[in-house]
Design goal:
Radius of gyration: 17 Å
Number of strands: 7
Helix content: 25-40%
Largest sheet: 5 strands, antiparallel
Shape: globular
Number of helices: 8
Distance between the termini: 26 Å
Order of helices and strands: HHHHHEEHHHEEEEE
Strand content: 15-25%
Strand order of the largest sheet: 2-1-7-6-3
Length: about 190
């Protein structure tokens, strides 16, 4: 069974490392900012331990995508007005940030009902498998490749995920946090 909390925990360390490397923040500087030791930052990034409580909350606040700048809002508008089936989520939490009308056609719940909510509960087995393989495919490196994977049809009361090939692209927002663009690959299985 897929556990969204486990998936978030598994991605927290690599996401923290990616953010730190991209912004050239040394582990010691981040440790000083968070009030922890440098070795603790190292253990979190390597996955040998996980932050909990207040430390976890501060790291999540640091990494959760918020498209607040004018450029980020323009990106949200482009996704929201796109004629192709596409949506954008926070890379860490999968919280919905934008969705095109073509993607929303497969959704039974209204867009407003799903906006700013994690889409984890609607992950098909194919999406779950792809999520678990991201680290091995270089997703958490500073310059991650697009990842293409197949998903089977999955029906939920709130949405239907059609059988298709999906392409995900990691996008850096203007504040250094990451969003994930999710679109159908041109070779969609339909």
């Amino acid at each position: 069974m897929f556990d969204p909390g486990t998936a978030l925990s598994r991605n927290l360390g690599p996401s923290l490392r990616r953010w730190r490397v991209l912004y050239r923040v040394k582990q010691q500087a981040l440790a000083d900012e968070l009030g922890v030791s440098q070795s603790r930052i190292s253990r979190w990034e390597s996955g040998t331990s996980e932050p909990d409580g207040l430390d976890r909350a501060r790291i999540e606040r640091l990494l959760l995508a918020r498209p607040d700048s004018a450029a980020d809002r323009a990106l949200v508008e482009l996704v929201s007005s796109n004629s192709a089936p596409v949506h954008m989520v926070c890379d860490l939490s999968h919280r919905l940030l934008a969705v095109s009308p073509a993607r929303a056609q497969d959704w039974h719940a209204g867009v407003n009902e799903l906006m700013d909510r994690p889409l984890w509960p609607y992950a098909s087995e194919g999406i779950q498998a792809a999520e678990q393989s991201l680290g091995a495919k270089g997703w958490f490196e500073p310059h991650a490749p697009d990842i293409v994977f197949s998903t089977e049809r999955a029906d939920f009361p709130e949405m239907t995920i059609p059988e298709s090939r999906i392409r995900i692209t990691r996008l850096a927002l203007s504040d250094g946090r990451f969003a994930r663009l999710v679109r159908d690959d041109p070779d969609r299985l339909a």
